[in-house]
Description:
- Helix 1 runs parallel beside helix 2 (78-94) and helix 5 (205-222) runs parallel beside helix 6 (245-257).
- Helix content is 33%, strand content 14%.
- By secondary structure, it is α/β, with parallel strands linked by helices.
Amino acid sequence: MSDSALFSPITLAGLALPNRIVVSPMCQYSAEGGRATDWHLMHYGMLANSGAGLVILEATGVEPEGRISGDDLGLWDDGTEAALARVVAACKRWGQAKLGIQIAHAGRKASVAAPWKGGKSLAAGERAWQTVGPMAEPFAEGWHVPQAMGPGEMARVRDAFANCAARSARLGLDVAELHAAHGYLLHQFLSPLTNRRQDAYGGSLENRMRFPLEVWDAVRKAWPTDRPLGARITGSDWVEGGITPEEAVAFGLALKQRGCDFLDVTSGGVVPGARIKLGPGYQVPFATAVRNGTGLPTMAVGLIVRAEQAEKIVADGAADMVAIARAVLDDPRWGWKAARELGADVAYPPQYERAAPPLWPGYAYRYDSASMD
């Protein structure tokens, strides 16, 4: 039995995970009309056998206008639900990981082209749509000017989040994560940089949290209490006058009071030009601050690449889980290799068990340089 902290089990709201490795949500820009495609079947089928205990599907739009791009995944009607059901069923039948979803609305950062199509705001002839936000201010020069949301728009979007959560539960997804970071709609309401409203939804932190918490309450009501529900929040806007770790803790505590099971802590994205200090594990201190301040199980993200780095984060109590993103795209068997490096066990699909160390003589020649002597 390994004493690896990374490969120790953890339980969230009654859901047992075999290890602390999470595949972070990563947009694929490969849906058609919001519907999952064969790409999602291949992509998530691969990640479901990466060695991670939990795989969280990409940011999934709660309504067509909530997508970042027209190629984003969505879950708002029977058609999008049926398309995603095929992916979920395959991953749950053949994969080893539990499966989660990140439900999201892009707000003023919506109606843009996929990154490999330029990543810029869509022109009128490119099926652009009216974006929304807390204020009628664009993300940057050349971006769409959003419509400032009134009571009707806020009620519609709140209900769309709840609808998405209910459909996610019906699909049998194990975990749901509310996206309130990366400069998307709920983050736009939370940040003083993007929310200077003069009504009950702007100004003080209490007011700026009001709409995100109304959305949370609707999602919490729609999502089963025996499955984990958490939120991705920002630990810092990296800009003077923006969200601080202290405000992140305050938001986390408000979520905790409303039945939040975990927090996934990231940073940045709400305004352009932020000076982010990149480096290995650069966002981990935000996760630590939120973990210590709220007492909730917390995921850390941000240039977590190596197994020993992830092991130290969990072993030191800096976070309870680590969410791996591009490192898993680069190496879809990241969890398998991490287990080998740390002397831990990890679940293989039975079809691949003959490649595991006890059954494959070639393992020693590939991974143990001493055996080559």
